[in-house]
């Protein structure tokens, strides 16, 4: 990519004498205007460090680093275009600023500063104005984990063919319950990892009453779906499993707000369900999971869940196919976050909360869904959902030739594991208003 060259303005040689005085008088104003051009050191670096370098640094998902002036300068025009058109930072929800905790947005002032810096020739500025470069723990965005669990062996991804879901197991050896305030999934090879579901398998030591009520006609995986219920690598040990975290392209680590955490029973095993995609050449992967433990004495438990519609059917050639799914609530519940997920035909999402009296409220709109930037949307003000309510999700798909990412617009598309198939999947992070009770507090015979 060509670099942005500094533009110099000169005057023609044919300047008549009467104009000399006025040009001289304009000198201070010109100097002030030149001095007002933002510099990388003083104005741009703080914006990048705050908003961009979590991803734009060596080893992370972004294709280039933005840590230093030499890193940034060749991409000045690209920054102008991406920021000016609203593509970066990648944020796809349509909601007033401040609606979500994890918004990736630039303020209007920061956006103007970046555009003015590029327009002014992208000057470096004085080294004394440069703030300290942010320090990131190597390989993690959540800080140094308290515990790291890694696949015991490297998995060899074949060069081609359909790869069914694979399962990997990592014992925790926890001797007491653990409260997790942050969890991060780190693929060893992002190019082949389509998604990861982190499950926790352990004997329960808490009595958890039902919360989510799924529609069995839509939310049950079809028995014929390969890889979801059976796999040569899947272990059937009879232990119940709970979803802990989700990774997909662009997904950030999950960090829970103060006073809340995931609860892990002692003696559990972490199960990774990994969907690999062949790239045309042999690859390898060794995914790992990092946990940061809460130090709070009695955090509120956050539970991950999901609701889906596996009956979806996208007719060939249709550019605007809509598929709905819903989940009901069997007790008063707090909703912390929602995670919409489709494959490459997905184009937009909308979520509506329906209260017991029929009142409807829009709670999340994603008008420009991007498969490459999949986001858990954390509400700044959590949703308080009364018993008897439901959330209805609506996803739209473009199965037409006009969709440049469409693998094949000439076929009807159904639910499937692979990227060329489709899903209508929503992850949800929630907490029942009524906390669970230890199993020892239940009636005789109700314990483990």
Major beta-sheet overview: 6 strands, mixed
Shape call: globular
Strand content: 25-35%
The secondary-structure class comes to alpha+beta
Give the tally of structural domains.
Answer: 3
Give the assembly state of these chains: single chain
CATH architecture of the largest domain: Sandwich
Low-confidence stretches: 1-25, 221-232, 441-448
Q: Kindly state the number of beta strands.
A: 25
Number of separate helices = 7
> Can you tell me the CATH topology of the largest domain?
Jelly Rolls
- N-C termini distance: 63 Å
CATH top-level class of the largest domain:
Mainly Beta
- The level of helicity is 10-25%
Mean pLDDT: 84
Rg result: 26 Å
Structural summary, described in words:
With 448 residues, the protein is of the alpha+beta class. The chain has three domains: 31-129, no CATH class; 137-203 and 239-301, Jelly Rolls, CATH 2.60.120.230; 302-435, Jelly Rolls (Sandwich). It contains seven helices and 25 strands. The protein has helices spanning 20-25, 27-35, 40-51, 69-72, 76-84, 108-119, 216-219; strands at 147-150, 155-157, 166-171, 178-186, 193-201, 206-207, 212-214, 241-247, 254-255, 260-264, 269-276, 283-285, 288-293, 300-301, 303-308, 313-314, 321-329, 333-341, 346-354, 360-366, 377-385, 390-397, 413-414, 425-432, 437-438. Strands 1, 4, 9, 10, 13 and 14 form a six-stranded mixed beta sheet that branches. Strand 19 and strand 20 (360-366) form a beta hairpin. The longest helix is centred in the N-terminal third of the chain and has 12 residues, at 40-51. 29% of the residues are buried. Residues 1-25, 221-232 and 441-448 have low confidence and may be disordered.
């Amino acid at each position: 990519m060509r670099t942005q060259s500094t533009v110099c303005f000169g005057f023609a040689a044919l300047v008549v004498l009467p104009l000399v005085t006025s040009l001289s008088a304009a000198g201070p104003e010109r100097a002030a205007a030149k001095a007002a051009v933002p510099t990388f050191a003083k104005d741009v670096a703080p914006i990048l460090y705050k908003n961009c370098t979590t991803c734009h640094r060596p080893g992370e998902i972004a294709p280039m680093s933005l840590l230093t002036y030499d890193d940034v300068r060749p991409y000045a025009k690209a920054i102008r275009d991406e920021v000016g058109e609203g593509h970066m930072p990648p944020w796809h929800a349509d909601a007033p600023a401040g609606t979500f905790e994890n918004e990736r947005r630039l303020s209007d002032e920061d956006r103007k500063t970046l555009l003015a810096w590029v327009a002014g020739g992208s000057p470096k500025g004085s080294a004394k104005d440069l703030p300290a470069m942010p320090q990131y723990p190597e390989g993690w965005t959540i800080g140094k984990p308290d515990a790291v669990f890694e696949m015991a062996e490297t998995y060899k991804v074949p060069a081609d063919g359909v790869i069914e879901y694979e399962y990997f197991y990592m014992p925790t050896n926890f001797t007491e319950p653990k409260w997790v305030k942050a969890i991060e999934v780190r693929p060893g090879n992002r190019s082949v990892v389509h998604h990861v579901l982190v499950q926790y398998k352990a004997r329960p030591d808490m009595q958890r009453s039902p919360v989510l009520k799924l529609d069995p006609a839509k939310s049950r995986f079809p028995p014929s779906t390969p890889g979801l219920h059976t796999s040569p690598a899947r272990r059937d040990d009879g232990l119940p499993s709970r979803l802990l975290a989700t990774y997909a392209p662009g997904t950030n680590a999950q960090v829970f707000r103060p006073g809340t955490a995931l609860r892990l029973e002692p003696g559990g095993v972490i199960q990774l369900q990994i969907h690999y995609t062949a790239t045309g050449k042999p690859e390898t992967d060794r995914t790992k999971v990092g946990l940061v433990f809460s130090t709070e004495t009695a955090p509120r438990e956050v539970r991950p869940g999901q609701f889906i519609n596996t009956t979806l059917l996208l007719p060939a050639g249709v550019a605007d196919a809509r598929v709905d799914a819903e989940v009901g609530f069997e007790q008063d519940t707090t909703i912390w976050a929602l995670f919409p997920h489709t494959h490459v035909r997905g184009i937009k999402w909308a979520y509506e909360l329906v209260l017991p009296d029929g009142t409807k409220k829009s709670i999340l709109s994603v008008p420009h869904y991007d498969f490459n930037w999949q986001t858990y949307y954390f509400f700044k003000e959590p949703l308080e959902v009364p018993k008897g309510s439901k959330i209805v999700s609506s996803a739209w798909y473009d199965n037409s030739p006009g969709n440049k990412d469409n693998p094949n617009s000439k076929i009807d598309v159904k639910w499937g594991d692979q990227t060329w198939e489709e899903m209508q999947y929503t992850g949800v992070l929630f907490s029942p208003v009524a906390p669970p009770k230890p199993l020892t507090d239940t009636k005789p015979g109700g314990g483990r």
